[in-house]
Amino acid sequence: xxxxxxxxxxxxxxxxxxxxxxxxxxxxxxxxxxxxxxxxxxxxxxxxxxxxxxxxxxxxxxxxxxxxxxxxxxxxxxxxxxxxxxxxxxxxxxxxxxxxxxxxxxxxxxxxxxxxxxxxxxxxxxxxxxxxxxxxxxxxxxxxxxxxxxxxxxxxxxxxxxxxxxxxxxxxxxxxxxxxxxxxxxxxxxxxxxxxxxxxxxxxxxxxxxxxxxxxxxxxxxxxxxxxxxxxxxxxxxxxxxxxxxxxxxxxxxxxxxxxxxxxxxxxxxxxxxxxxxxxxxxxxxxxxxxxxxxxxxxxxxxxxxxxxxxxxxxxxxxxxxx
Length: 323
Ligand SMILES: Nc1ncnc2c1ncn2[C@@H]1O[C@H](COP(=O)(O)OP(=O)(O)OP(=O)(O)O)[C@@H](O)[C@H]1O
Hints:
It is built from 11 helices and 14 strands. By secondary structure, the chain is an alpha/beta fold. Helix 3 packs across helix 4 (about 105-115) and helix 4 (about 105-115) crosses helix 5 (about 130-140).
């Protein structure tokens, strides 16, 4: 378990982390989200004793990092995948880490195998691709078989196979009862990986909640329905529109998107009006959209585009008209 209480970091005029309080619990994957410059890396660095808080504290299993007797056996971390001497082989790099922490050298070969780097283990780390460097970083984090993992952007540079591999790895680690804390800007991946979310913006806590609750809070009642018969479709739209707060969009292919009604309510109404449906489902908001809505006002570095641009978020553009 990681405990963060009133954690604050000021660099000159910049308040990088501002009174953060949250727990990262064991047995689940906690995603750490926030726009560029929100303070994620600074928070992780303070958890790992690489930066001193201006105020507050961050504890691992109840202790500050500096008090851990064999740190690699208490917490495994990857903050910067490229932070390896380029002339050293991946294996030599891990052997040095193992020796410094009293870990048997045979564990090095185990973790190299686990991350798929056995073949490249004796090559200089400077010749590794970004994805391979990431795998080496993860190997270092796993070396001491620690109960806590802190990974900053572990999917950075990984190919689709590598992304799936990291997802499975961290989920397995959490299923074994470990504490997993990881950051990523890849929302679709985070949605598949994390059970719980800590979201920050401009150094402050914006949300500390389960993935399910985070998505539910961002969703309004809305659903999609496919009504094959045009007359029946018109009947259903008419009946839906008699209620306040309901709007209906019809796509060119005849699919209805209904705001203000759930799939269950539309199903009941269609049954009542004897309207045949071919498809009916609630519209669930994506993590990307929910996150964009939450952080829209706390983005430090922005491209100036609309944060609620549904086309950019992967939604189909509206082909028909809103009624
Ligand atoms: N050593 C430092 N000296 C001065 N300012 C710093 C230092 N490290 C971080 N900052 C500032 O603190 C703020 C938070 O930075 P941090 O790197 O923690 O954000 P982040 O959420 O990890 O961003 P990203 O997603 O871009 O990695 C930024 O304004 C950054 O410029």
